[in-house]
Amino acid sequence: MLKSAEYRKLELSTPTPLEEQTRIVQKVDELMAHCNQLKERLNQDRETHCQLAGAVVGQGLCEGDRDAGF
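Now predict its structure.
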């Protein structure tokens, strides 16, 4: 166990508040960029889903018209 006099002699390196804030901001920026990429992928996937659903429904309607003699 360290005595208080020995403890005071130790030099502990701790980040300054500015360094810590900078590191946090960089990490948040990195995570936000990742979130934005995911959001864009979701939007693209939703758009593709709507196009495919429309094509399937349209194809079904055309086949129904053909079967009905139109």
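Residues 17-67 form the longest helix (51 residues).
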